[in-house]
Structure formats: C-alpha cells, structure tokens
Amino acid sequence: MSDFLNRNDVRFFSGRSNPDLAAGICAQLSVPLDQTYFSRFSNDNLHVQLGTSVRGRDVYIVQSLTPPVSDHLLELLMMLDIARGAAAREVHAVIPYFSYARSDKKDAPRVSITARLIADLLQTSGATQVMTMTLHSPQVHGFFSLPTDPLTARGLFVDYIREKQLDRCNTVVVAPDAGIAKAAAKFAERVGLPLAVGNKIRLSDTSVSVNDLVGRQVEGFQHAIVYDDEIATGGSVDEVCQIMVKHGITEITVICTHGLFLGRAVERLSSIPEIVDIVTTDTVAIPQEKRLPNMTVLSVATVFADAIRRNYFRLSLGDLFTYGEDVEVTGVQCAP
Amino acid sequence: MSDFLNRNDVRFFSGRSNPDLAAGICAQLSVPLDQTYFSRFSNDNLHVQLGTSVRGRDVYIVQSLTPPVSDHLLELLMMLDIARGAAAREVHAVIPYFSYARSDKKDAPRVSITARLIADLLQTSGATQVMTMTLHSPQVHGFFSLPTDPLTARGLFVDYIREKQLDRCNTVVVAPDAGIAKAAAKFAERVGLPLAVGNKIRLSDTSVSVNDLVGRQVEGFQHAIVYDDEIATGGSVDEVCQIMVKHGITEITVICTHGLFLGRAVERLSSIPEIVDIVTTDTVAIPQEKRLPNMTVLSVATVFADAIRRNYFRLSLGDLFTYGEDVEVTGVQCAP
Amino acid sequence: MSDFLNRNDVRFFSGRSNPDLAAGICAQLSVPLDQTYFSRFSNDNLHVQLGTSVRGRDVYIVQSLTPPVSDHLLELLMMLDIARGAAAREVHAVIPYFSYARSDKKDAPRVSITARLIADLLQTSGATQVMTMTLHSPQVHGFFSLPTDPLTARGLFVDYIREKQLDRCNTVVVAPDAGIAKAAAKFAERVGLPLAVGNKIRLSDTSVSVNDLVGRQVEGFQHAIVYDDEIATGGSVDEVCQIMVKHGITEITVICTHGLFLGRAVERLSSIPEIVDIVTTDTVAIPQEKRLPNMTVLSVATVFADAIRRNYFRLSLGDLFTYGEDVEVTGVQCAP
Amino acid sequence: MSDFLNRNDVRFFSGRSNPDLAAGICAQLSVPLDQTYFSRFSNDNLHVQLGTSVRGRDVYIVQSLTPPVSDHLLELLMMLDIARGAAAREVHAVIPYFSYARSDKKDAPRVSITARLIADLLQTSGATQVMTMTLHSPQVHGFFSLPTDPLTARGLFVDYIREKQLDRCNTVVVAPDAGIAKAAAKFAERVGLPLAVGNKIRLSDTSVSVNDLVGRQVEGFQHAIVYDDEIATGGSVDEVCQIMVKHGITEITVICTHGLFLGRAVERLSSIPEIVDIVTTDTVAIPQEKRLPNMTVLSVATVFADAIRRNYFRLSLGDLFTYGEDVEVTGVQCAP
Amino acid sequence: MSDFLNRNDVRFFSGRSNPDLAAGICAQLSVPLDQTYFSRFSNDNLHVQLGTSVRGRDVYIVQSLTPPVSDHLLELLMMLDIARGAAAREVHAVIPYFSYARSDKKDAPRVSITARLIADLLQTSGATQVMTMTLHSPQVHGFFSLPTDPLTARGLFVDYIREKQLDRCNTVVVAPDAGIAKAAAKFAERVGLPLAVGNKIRLSDTSVSVNDLVGRQVEGFQHAIVYDDEIATGGSVDEVCQIMVKHGITEITVICTHGLFLGRAVERLSSIPEIVDIVTTDTVAIPQEKRLPNMTVLSVATVFADAIRRNYFRLSLGDLFTYGEDVEVTGVQCAP
Amino acid sequence: MSDFLNRNDVRFFSGRSNPDLAAGICAQLSVPLDQTYFSRFSNDNLHVQLGTSVRGRDVYIVQSLTPPVSDHLLELLMMLDIARGAAAREVHAVIPYFSYARSDKKDAPRVSITARLIADLLQTSGATQVMTMTLHSPQVHGFFSLPTDPLTARGLFVDYIREKQLDRCNTVVVAPDAGIAKAAAKFAERVGLPLAVGNKIRLSDTSVSVNDLVGRQVEGFQHAIVYDDEIATGGSVDEVCQIMVKHGITEITVICTHGLFLGRAVERLSSIPEIVDIVTTDTVAIPQEKRLPNMTVLSVATVFADAIRRNYFRLSLGDLFTYGEDVEVTGVQCAP
Fold first, then answer.
1. pTM of the prediction?
2. CA–CA dist A62, A55 (Å, integer)
3. CA 20 to 30 Å from E162, out of A187, A191, B238, E220?
4. Any CB–CB contact under 8 A between D51 and chain B?
C-alpha cells in the first residue's frame, strides 16, 4: 500500500485562523492546500468561496477556534456548508484548538453548554467527521454525534523530553490540578519520571489559586516539568512555578498543548528566571512577537497528517488518540 | 380580552446589538426586559447567562445581526440554546435586521447560501419561531422551517409621509432597482403617489451603477421619495439621488428600513443638499454621531410589539406582514 | 480517464412525464434506460416497480413536474423511496422542469411556500442529490438541503443564435421583466447583442401586463430576441411581442427554456406573423400537435448528460450551472 | 366539564375530497367549518389558502384519499404545511379513507411500501397527529411516528344491525377472508351471531377468487351478513355472494366501511337480487348516482366528532379505537 | 467477478446470542469473525469493545434477539454505536431472529408497537442497513426507515423435503393458521404438495386453540407437514398435531424457522409419537439438551452469507427475499 | 398560587426498578401513582401497558437504571414510547439513578460512550424532558439534547449532618478523589467543616487504590465524613476508611447518594467498626437485608417532588440543581 494519498481524492482548505498549520499538514501529506477566498461585505457579513471543485472528494477544512473566535467559527460553518452543498463525499472539520471545549457543563442556572451547541452546529452545517486535539475534558467527546477523533500531542512532548536526557533522579512531572493529572501521569510514565499533582482552585476566569500542597510533593527535586493542556493568560502556570521555586526547584520546563499566550501571559512567563524551556505546539498560531527565546513550538502537523493518512488508508487511529487518558495510570508514583 | 400580556407567561431578553429596541418593545407591551449577563473568557469564548427562569414561558430574544455580526449571531444562538435547555415553552428569535438575508443565492460556484445556513442554525439552537423585518428578498422566508413572520415597517413610513401632506402632483416614489420595485409600488399606492423604477446594476459589494433610464421617468417632478430596504455604505442611494438631481428633482426624501450607515454613508448623504429628509428605523441601532440633523428614526418597537401581542392573543399577523409585497401592485403606474 | 460511465455503477429510470428526454440522456451517456413498471390500483393508488436491482448503484430518476403534476410528483417520490429502500448508494432526482419553483414566497397569508415543501418531500422520500434546470428564481436553490445543481440551457441557446449569424447592428435581446433580466443579460453578452428590459406586471395567474416602456428601448432595431424562462399560456410573451411590433420590430425570435404551451399558447404564438422562430427545449415533453412549423426544440439531454458525467467523474459542474445568473452583468448595456 | 369545544381554540378545514363529511363533523361539534380556497395555476400547480388565522389553534384538516388520490394527497400536504407555517399549536390530519394503507408490504422486489412513505410525508409536511379509520391491516398503525388514532365504524354497524332484530337462529356473519376475520368476529360477537370465514385468494388487483369452503360453513342459514373493510370494484364481494346463494342463503346484507364503488361495482351489486341491504359509510363521498335503492350510508361524522371532542377534553379514545381487533375473539364459533 | 469478499473491506462481529451462526456466516464467506470483548460493570452496566479497527469498512454485526432479549438488544445497540462512532462506512445489523416482530400492532390501549420502537432505536444507534429473517408479519418491514432485507429459509426447507422424496399422493402441507398460510402455500407449491389451512385462535400468549376445521381438510392423507414460522412453547403445534392424528394422519413433519423451544416445548414435541421429523434452523441457538433425536437443524448461515455476498457485489437479493410471500399463491389448492 | 398539582393535568407511572420511590414522590405531591401492567411473553419480549389515559397530560415515568439494567432501560423506553404514541403533552423521564453516566468517555479504542447513546435513545423513544440525580460527571448533562435537570441530594445530607451537631473542631469532610472534590467542597462549606481530598486511582472496575496522601491531611481530626456519589462494591470507600483509621480517625460517617451495595459491599462496610453512620438515599431501592443497623436511608422523594412541583408551576429549579458543583469552592481549606 502506498503511503501517499491520491491527490484527486482529497481537498484541503484552511480558514483564516491558522493557515501555516494547514499548510504544514498538506506538506506532510504531499498534497496542495487549495485556495479559499475570504471577504467581508460592507454590512460585516462574511463571504467565503472554496477555490476548487470538491465533488465526490474527501474534504478537510482546518480551522482553530482562536480569537476572533466567533468569526473563525462562522467561517468554519460556512466552509462546511459549502463543501456539503457542492456534493463532497466526506467533510472533515479539523479543529486543532476547540476553544469551547471549556464550556462543557452547566455550572450556573441558565447558561449554555456551548461545547455541545457547537458540536451540533458543526453537524447542521455539514461536517461528517471531526478531528481535534486535547479537549479540555474527555467527556466533550460525547457531545459529538459524528465520528470524532480527539488526537494528542503527547507523543511530540515525549520525544522532545527524551532527547533532553534529563536526570531521572532529580526531575519530577507536575500536574497543576486534578483535571490534567491523568494525562500528566501517562506522560510521566512514558518518559520514566515521577509525578506530583496540585489542586488548582479556579477563583474566576482569569484568576486561580494553586493549593500549596503540591509544593511538599516536589521537595528534593531540582527540575520540574509543569504539564498542562492550555496556557491562556498564564496565571495558573505562573503560580505553580512560584510554588515550585519556593520549594527548591531551580529549573522549570513548561509544557502545554494549546499556547494561547493572551493578556499578560508572555510577560508573566518571561519574569520567572527558573523557566528554562517553554514547550508548546502550533494548534494556536503564535505570532513572532510572542515567541520567547526559551520557547519551542512543536508542530502538530505530523500528528494531524498521520491521522488523516490513517483515515484515508482506513488504518486504526488508536495510537494518536487520547482515550480519556485513562490507561496505565496505575503504578505512577511520586516517590523521591 | 385584555390587551395586556400576562407578565408571568413571557420572558424578554436582549442580545447586545440593539438593547434600546428591545427595551422599546417591552415598554410597548408593559412587560420588563429581563436581565442577561454577558462576558468573554480570556480565550475569547463568549459566556451568556439569562437572568430569570424561563421554565414553561414564551421566551422572546431580540438580536439584530449588526456588526460585529458573528459575535451577535453566536450570542443569539447561545441564548436560544439556553432557553430551550431551561425548558421554555416557546423560543422566539426576534431578528429586526437579518443581515445574511442578502446571501440568498449561489451566484458563484462553491459559495454558501448563508441565509439558509443561518436559518438552520437558529433551529438547531432551539428557536421555535422567528420574527424579522423586511428580508432582502421574499424568497428567504422559505429558508426557514420554523413558523416565521417577516414584518414590514411600511405602515410607519406611510403614516409619516401622509402627515407631511406632500403635493401629489409633483412628488414621485423612486425604487432604485427592480428588487425593491414591488415593495415601493405598494408604498406608493398607499400614499397615492406615482412610481418610477431604476435598474441598479451591482458592480461589486461596495460599488453599484444605476441605469440612467430612471432619470427620464422622474422628469417633471420636483420631489422624489427614494424608497429602499437598506442603506449600507450609501453608494447606491448616492448615485440615484445624483441622477434625480440631474433630471430636475429639487427635493429628495430618502426612506430605508435598515439604516446601517457604514463606511462613508453619512458623509455621502450629508453632501447632497437636495436631501431634505432621511427616514429610517431602529432595526439597526444608530449611534448619536451618525444621526444627521435631517434624519428621522422611526421606532419599529410598535410593530414588533404588536406582532408579539397578536401572537400571544392568537390573532392574525396579516396586517403586519410583508407577503412578498406582491399584492395590489396592479394599477400602479408612473404617469406624470 | 475514460469518458464513459461504467454501466454497472449507475441506473437510470424515467417517470412517465418525459421518457423521451430520459432516453436521450441515456443515449448521450451510452447507458441503457432501465425499465420501470407503472400501474394504478382500482382505488386510484399508484403502483411503481423499478425493473433492475439498484443495490450500491448511483441511481438517476428523471421526472418533470408537468401535468398531471400531482401524479408525476407522487411517482417521483415513490421511485426515490424505492431506490433508497433497495439500498442504492446515491439517489439523484433529475427534475428538468420543477413547476413548483414558482411557489417560492408567501404572497398572501396562510399559503404554502410549496417549492420549499416539495424540496423537503424529496429529501424525506430518499433523494440524496437533485438536478434541475432554470428555477424561476435563483433563491429556490436555497430551499434544498441536499446538494442541488440547477443547470442552464443558455449554452444551447447561445450556440443556436451564433449559428444564425444575426446582424449585430439591428438585433436586440429583450427581457420581458426584471426577474429574467440577469439571465438575459448574460445571454446577450455571450452572443454580443444589446439588451432591453421590460417591466412585466402580473395581474393574475393567467393575465399579465407589460409596461410599454420597453418599447422605447427597442426602437431602431429590426429583430428582437425575446428571452424568457417559461411559456405557459403565452399571455406575457404575446403582449411583449405586440409591443415590439408596435415599436418597429419586424422579426422576432422567442426563446424559452420551459415550453409548456398550455391553454391558448399555441394559438397566440401562431397569430403573430413577426415571430420567425420559437426556440425552446424538451424539459417539458412537447406533443407533435403543439410543434409549430417555426418551432425549434433543442434537447437538454446533452446538458443533463454532461452534468451527470461530470458528477460521475467528479468534475466541476461550474460551466453548466446558473449561479443566480449574477456574474458579468456589468457592462451590459442597451445602447443602439 | 362542558361538552362544547371552545370555538376559539380550534379550526376545521376540508380538502376537496369529502367536504360533506367535514361539514358533518363540524355540525356534530357545533363549530364552523372554516373556508379554504383552492385554485390551480395554468401549469397545473395547486394553490391553496386557508381562510382563517390558525395561530396557536388546534387545527383539524379533513381529507380522504379518494380519486384523484394524488391531487387530494398533495392538497392535504399543502394544507398541513400552511397550518404549521402559520404557527398552529396542533395540526391534525383527519384521513377518513387512507387509500395507501393497502400498500403495506413489499410483495415484489423494488416496490415502495407506500403507506409508510405517505406516513413520513405527512410528518414532514407538519402534521402533529393523525386520525383515520379502519386501516387495511392493523400493522399500518406502526408506520406512523406521530400519535395516530385509527377509529372504527363498527359501533355504527352494530347499532344498525341490532335495530333490524334479525333472527339469531338463521343469520350468520361472513368474513370473506382471513384478513378481515378478527374484525368480523368482534362484530359478530357484539351482535350475537355466529361467524363463517372464507379464504379469498387475490389473483390480481381487480380479480380475486374465494375458496368455496366458506360455502359449507353457511349451509343451513338463510341470511348472511358479509362484512368487509372496503369495496372497490366489488369483485370479491360479488363472488362471495354467489357462493352464499349457491349454498342456500336467500338474503344477504353487505357491510363495508369504505364504499368506493369503482368500475363495475354498482352494476355487480345491483345484479344480485339476494342482496337486500348494502350498509356503508361516508368515509368516501358517494355520489347520488351510485346510491342504490337498497344502500344505507351511515355517517362516520359522529365517530370522528366524538374522537375530536375526547381529544380536546383529554379523554381516552379507547372505545372508538380498533386495537388490531384482537380482543375477545375467543369463543366466537360458527356452530349452527 | 470474484466470489470472494475482500477481507480488508469488511468486518464481522457477533453479539453473545448466537456466535456459532456468526462464525458459520464468516466461514461461508471465508472471512474471519473479528473479536468482540464483553464485560459487565459491578453496577450491571454492559461494556463492549470491538477488537478490530472498522474505519471505512462495511461492518456486519450479528445478533439474534433471544433470551435475555433486553441484554442482547442493548449489546447490539452498543455495537452499532461503536461502529458508527469509529467511522465505519456501512453498519449492518444482522438480526436472524427479531423477537419483537410479534409486537407489531396496538391490540389494546396504551401499549407500545415495540417492533417499530426497536426499528427506530437501531437507526438512532447507527445502523445503516438491516438484515433479518421471516418477520412475523410482512408489514413489519415497513417499520424500518433503513434499507432492510427480510430473508427467508424456505429454500432450505424445500431442498430438505425434496430430498426426502415424499409420496405426493398422501402428503399434505398444513398451515396452522391464516397468518402463515401464504408462506406455506408458496412452500407447498415449490414442493408440489397440496395445502390445508387451520384457524388458530390465540387465547393468550401461552395458550391457543386451533379450530378443528383443518382436520376435515387433511382426511385421507397419511403424512402432514406442519409449516410454521416460530415455535416458542409449542402449544400451538402440539394442538395442530393432535388434530392431525385424530383425523388419521400417521406421520408428521414439523417445520419452523425460529426454534425457540421454550418452557415445555421439548416435552410436548417428544410426547407425540407421530412426529417423525422436526426441521428447524439456527436463527436461534439451540443448546444440545434441546436437540431431540428426530430434530434436524438446518443452518441459515448459507442464506445470510449469500445475501451479504450479493450485497457486497451489488447483486439483487430477490431470490433470498420474502416479499410478503404473496406471489404465486394462485392455483394452490387443498384437493385430495 | 396553589401548592397542589391539578390531578387531571398529570400522570405518574413507575417502572419496576423502584416503585416505592415513585409512590413516595406521588405521596409528596398528593397525586395517585397510576397503574402500569408488566408481563413478559414466552419469547422473553417485554410487554407493558399504561393503566390510565395520558392524552394531553404531563406524564412522569420513574425508573432507576438498577440491575437488571437492560430490562429496566427497555421498560423505560417502552413506557416513553407509549406515552408519546398516546398523545401525552409532555413526557418526563425521571431517572433517579442513571447508571450509564459512568460510561461518559472513550477510554479505549472502539468502545461506546454509552451515556450519550442512552440519552439519544431516550429522545428517540419519546421523552421530552429528563430529570435525574447526581450524574457521575457534570459533563454528562451535555449529552442530553432535551431539557434535563440533574438534581442533588446534598440538601438532605446537609440537614442531616447539621442536626447531628458535630464538633466543628475535630470533624473533617473527606472527598475520596478529585472527581467528587467540588461536590464535597460545596457540602463542606454548607456544614461549616474543613475538607480533605484524596487521589483515588482506579485499577479496574472492581479494584481501586487510594493514594495515602489524604491520610496526612486528616491527622489531628477524630471524625471523618467520607463523601462520595455512589457505592457499588464498596472497595473504594473501604480503602479510604482504612487510611482514615490508620491516621487516627476514630469515627467515620459515610455519605453517598447512590447506595447500590453490590457484591461484598455490605460485608466490607460492616467490618469497619469505626463507621458509625452510613447515610444514603433511595435513588436505588435498598432491600431490607442490606440495611445495616447503622444505615440511614434518606428519601429523595421530596427533592423530585419539589422539582416536579416547580416545573409544574413554572418556578426555577435552581436550588435543587447541581450546576457542576463549581460555585463557591473558593475559601474551602483543610487547615487543622
């Protein structure tokens, strides 16, 4: 079986949120990224045109829900609608960063479980399959009626850390809160390091407090790898790092899948000298001015390209998949 | 039968596009406008909370699709979703200005008939009925699967013009293009004036050209009432007025339902001294700085309130309705 | 790539409205028209049986909604239902003449937007794609949730007229009303002729009045090509022709896509000696007795066959498509 | 609780198949039958307008699927669509004779189970509930996703026969075939008569053969009551009657719910002198010229009115219902 | 064309009701039966995992609704859901014994037409096609919205009986009641034997009474072949056999498709010495202890495998199909 | 406004899982529990009949998904289907214990997110609203398309503990793992006690291991209140209690909403002498033999009755609701 997709079977289009990642995925697959034309009417209506016939093809539309989220979402919905209406065979919504995954429950009366709403809107607009990465909670997978593959960047992080050949005796993986604990545990196991888990308590959308207890768990280590899914304003990772430092950590590696770096995030991260390495991905397009000298941006293009290739050749996506990160947590211990 | 809605049966909420109109509708109905809380997460996700229980109530959510259109649309979809999920009995989307009505056909390959897409998204999000005003083409009505009432502001314009007691011998109604001709004809008949119809040719979204032929039709008149559905950047109305002036018109009244006044619109309108009166409505919220001295903003609150009251008391909405503006066009003539 | 469809991949069936066109399409594609068996139970119930297995095939069902429309519609719905239930892969409703496209808006209270209703019934019955030709208004396209291709016969008319080598200096294309203006403009441009546009005012279903203004536009020309989408009872084309004659036109070519020729149509057309040529198509089956000596019936079989071939080979249908007829209207002028 | 419906809560409309029955139902309920306007465009498209506002009302639309069945079906679908689109609260399709109930199974490859298709079309068109009478097989009830009430006219027949005070010693009820046996058994039990069951073998749509075995069962009786659901061309009842006569029956009463009397039916029935009484109902409108002197047409208006009244007052419809006719068959015997 | 399915295109899985039949089907098709893992959580929740990737494959899931029916149904629904969610191309529910086909009508107020409910649940869970065998009534076919193929085992029985070379002069086929009469007639015709039909009257779920009339029909014959669709507790077949014996039959062959043999069935059948042969199939798994010495279990694996092969190669399933068993009944007579 | 439901507006039915709770809810509301008839056909098919007309009523069907879960689920689906088909106005599925909430994510390839599947099946079967209690994760709420109210028993536990007047200086609330931490924090705050959080690691369905770290947090306290959502086999609570005891706790109160007490649960709980009180509810029916002397079963009938009453009178359910248990966690500390 060939490793190459038949160019005539597929079509790739990119919304305006992250064209570089879309181009990267296409480069990995040796297929062209087809043109899309965007404009805005004087009354602020969006206008989108796909540049190539999609009739009978498997169409992949790449769009991250980054700011301006509403515009990017509507662009995506329109592109799906066009592909369906133009008689595509399959219409894949590829959403590297699905921002609304955080709106996954009703934590007050009369609010919207918006992640579910968006999942339904994607289907109404014509998506037949969804690909995304590291949803905020694994249950969000169940909001989709369509076949949906939530991929993981963990493999990229594992390879990166393994290459660093960190001292296994004085390095600890730190999960800032219980929500990320299982994913961090799986990562820790794959790189052969112990794990400490904090209890992050959310005060508001922009302000969190991390229980100091995690500090006691890291005493005796020198290097901490703080492992999280998303850095928005950086408040939470800032506080964890300060607790680390207070408890004797002298070197910190920060790992996160979705590097939004909004508000004061860059400032916060650059003000902690112990942070030697910030490792993130390009699910969110990171402009040059936010790229700190100690920042490494791993491309998830390989992961999405691999998933698309496997889907095309009808191979299992098991290895690329997150599966609620539940497996093999047993045996992980924090025991310096 | 009482004229008052039972306050305990209904709930009114407003998105952020046009709260004054929402308040006006509620004032007309003697019911309170319920509170809605809006915020935005640091990652640009919207967060909306309805402030009052809607269980078993008829809920009305007022939102115009004005810029930023995507945010306002998503707000609306989330509010509908909340109302449905909180067990409302009926969920009415009240959309005084439905911007995407203009995207009503496939005028190029691989574009979206976005008006239909939005109609479907409204239903997916939980709307059970839709109220709107003066859709760009009457066929858009057929895009909605839900009971939908496209209302008209024509009655307001008729009353306004009748009060002016314009000279019937030297005043002519001008429809800038064939699309608006039927609506203009109905208006002309109700105010007892002759009609002239132009042929507008759209060069691009922001540039149109009006066939000079309409000029010949208005010769001999002094006062022209230019009747259109929407003024965005004002290019089209600008050109029509200049043709009018060239052909001897000395006084111009401009009437339009949706006064967006975007880009150079205000500048254009204020640069034509023959325009004595600009009559529009508040389907789109018009900020103070755009309100020219010769501008009259009629409130459609009475029209929507009347429709809601009739719906509540199960009366026919016939008189408020547009019906494709088809009826009674017979006999309308341009015959000075 | 071969130009021939694999006979084993497709199945073609015809309802009883226009078997000759169905046979023509199949001949163009070098595939057989499969047998369908029709009968009627004693209680007037229809009974339909498809004559060949459709399992896993792309099925094309050709049916025009010509009188008796209700029977032909129900036949179509039953044939779609059979194909779906018998496990066809794709089920294409090919509707050369979609009569209900005219019922596209609510022009009175409590009437049905029947074009939308029929679009939904087609989907309920199992259609997965729709092909049709020259819908009365381009917005009707948006009534279909399914991938839908409204084709155009314009190319046939262009070829026909070009071959005639008409004198470009004294021939004008006439659009009887604004609704057909854009399509006529596109046609005029392709044959390099000027355009005149009339204002048809519909008095009732069978009676229309054409504003005399169009007459002034054609003065100075000798030959007029009246371009319309449909001739039913012929009242409208009759009146336009008489206006033409009154304003000096001595030769008239009438072009229309859907030649229904109902009621007094044939009589009307044959009573105007200036009509030298009536050009129509076979979207509606025209019986021998209605074929006037000066009538040319172009077969749309080539257009549908081409669209089906392109769909089969996953080529763009762009060139066959109507696209609301909006493009390239710029520059068209009536300037003798 | 009042016995009268609040006139302001309900609306009744009739299609063109059976306006007398619709009027009869309304008379029973002391509510007016609202006006409906029907016309046909020159291209044979139907046009329907409901004459009264239905907003928030329970709408009942009465239409039997009698010839021309396709037109009557489409009328019904359009009326449902109008009621839904005009914001009715409930939309009841009242179908006294549902002709397509006979197309209830796939008895050949690639035919349609049209009864199921029609059930789906009714729902797509906006029906929220269905009322009908004596479906050809009780399983057809399961084709409807909507709450559906198949009523029975048996009560009317029971009352009629009881009044006749027939001699219980020499009268036998005859079910022409096994399909009607259970319903006939229930009838026989209610009137206290024995039952004989024939084996009808359908040769084609218009020709059946009744196994002579039933003749042996009726020997010794003088009066036979032939009980069937529908008489179309009368071939089957004709043959049964002849067998009866051959085996000594001297008086025959024919009972059927749906009296279509198509083709040679009237002629056939009038040529058997032993038939003393033909009892049928008005689910199908019977024109004067088909009403034989010995024919009694019982109106089902009372049954439908009663069902509507019970539905309105939320009472059980149990007594009016057919329930597959299964109950209480035990103990029925043919034992003279 | 090859007779072999491409193993890489298909996946076969079996629920826990009848793994032997599933294995038999796979053996017939020379494809492996893929692994499925079943377990039950401590709170009685079922847990199912498919053992092989199904991405882009045609998936066949074999499950009979045998006791425990609810567990087997839920297993099936979960397996369908998994296949759909894992991006299978087609998902076939293969249900050799569809127990709920018996719940096909509303024979009392406020009961469920459960066969229709289950049909809907299968679709909701992800089935795209259904294969089953000998539904209790042919109308149940119409409950499915999906392409559904109700197969028949009649061919197996015909072959079996032909091989026996029974004496045509003294053997009669017996249909215990009218419901099975048409299927029995078709069988009788194919084996060239006369037919007798009984009138079974159901007293309750476990108790029936067969009208003695059938006895008279078999007088003069020595060997009766009792032909039924299902034997549950065996009460009905028991009674028919006793009537046969009473009327002189000395040898009985019992044929039924679904051999449930519940309650006292085995005991009953073994107590009638005249029963020389019980012929059934493996749609229901028959444990060793219920296999009487005179019982022959024909495997339907060949029938299902043939249907699957035909579906895969897009051949007609006509010959395997039941078609309401209506055809060719004409001419069948009971005439010794 | 009266506090009493109008008996004629509502109907209450109970499945077979927990009739006592259903009766308790009805008693609280002063309405009768209507009869439901259950039986099983000989082939194991379920048969259900509702005992009272539901036409136009709000129907509440109470069923916990306790063992046998599949039978109880199917009963529920059939009851919903009956209510819908019998023209109920609203159909509420009241599911005090929704067992499948635990199957809320894809933690391995090719498994089912069964909680989502069941949510969809409930809707397909006719539910219009859902009421349940303490779902395993708050995200499961988003699996339901219908208005859904996940209630909480926390108020009952708060009242119970407040009445005990526990010493605030030496009592600590213990959340066995992070999943329950937020709910436990809310409880702790309402009773004014500190909180400790353990890290439970699930080894398999029946075996878990609790990280010993929680032990250090409770040192210095005497009384621990272990707060969990569900006790199945009791393994997890057993281990937590033993850790408590090891770290000096001498009195333990165990609180859980869903007391399944399966397998060795009763044995385990009765073998720890420090457990002085086991507080649970009747969402799961607890048979007499499992009721330990130190067990207190609080009835949630009041909570469900209150929610139903509020729904009926259209009051907010805010106070009864769980809201992801997110609010007010701030300030909770473990600080002896």
1. 0.94
2. 18
3. E220
4. no
